[in-house]
Amino acid sequence: MGGLKKQMKITWITFLIGSLAISGIPPFSGFFSKDLILEKAYTYGTLFYGLGIITALLTAFYMFRMTYLTFYGESRVSSEKASHLHESPLVMTIPLIILSIGATVTGFLEVPHLFYGGVRILTSYFGPVFIRGIEISERIVKQPLDAREVGTTTTVELSLIAVSIAVAISGIFIARMIFLNGKKVPDSEESHTGIKRILTKKYYVDEFYHNFIVEPILLLGKFLADHVERNFLDLMLRGTGRVAVAISLVLRRAQTGIVVDYAILIVLGTVVILSFFLLRGL
């Protein structure tokens, strides 16, 4: 694609807001949620905090990689396809606008105590749910899940916020240098080798799933259809039908259309029923 911001301005703006929010840039909602996650990870130790920082960097990088490749630079579609590019209808753009507004303002429902003493609306609302989850987890691992006490002083919190923002900006900057300034376009999968091919193929999870789960199920289904269903179920059903036809051919002979025959059958039936009850009474 590329260069779509000219034809799809609303989609571009809302997508950009979403990317900024997911990347954790203030004042968008993702900044506040990411700050809380990293702060909690920091209280559990350097390992968890480091993993959170790496994840935040990669998140900002791939979000703006997608943004730059989709909406910036030169268009990479044919002129024939480019003539059909247009903004989405209102049924799609209105939800995008609503979501982008939410991504812009909902972060202020959970503000760190550093700012105006903090706003903890979401914590107050969802607190009982998470407390219950912690209690269940403690029973499973049979030990408390207490985090080490780290003083959330102004200096500590400012440092965590600064690192969080710096990491997000770094991810965006790297994506810009590679895919916008460097005008790099992703290669085809066939040209990838080594670790790059493994990552492109998503660790071959799809191939494993197809070869070891999908294909065996398809083979089993083919075997059941060709042998079990055709040689057993079909024969059983056809045999049931043949038995019903044979019985009907015998019984149809009793349907002569002669009233006398029917009267005789009624009398015989009555005699049989009375005999049954008389013999049973003896």
UniProtKB/TrEMBL annotation:
GO terms for biological process: ATP synthesis coupled electron transport; electron transport coupled proton transport. The chain crosses the membrane at residues 47-68, 89-109, 158-179, 259-279. One of its GO terms (cellular component) is endomembrane system. It comes from the Bacteria. Residues 1-58 form the NADH:quinone oxidoreductase/Mrp antiporter transmembrane domain. Signal peptide: none annotated. Its main location: membrane. It is found in: Endomembrane system; Membrane. It is a multi-pass membrane protein. Coiled coil: none annotated. InterPro entries: ND/Mrp_TM, NU5C-like. The keyword Transmembrane helix applies. Keywords: Membrane, Transmembrane, Transmembrane helix, Ubiquinone. Pfam families: Proton_antipo_M. PANTHER family: NADH-UBIQUINONE OXIDOREDUCTASE CHAIN 5. This is NADH-ubiquinone/plastoquinone complex I subunit domain protein. The lineage of its organism: Bacteria, Pseudomonadati, Spirochaetota, Spirochaetia, Leptospirales.
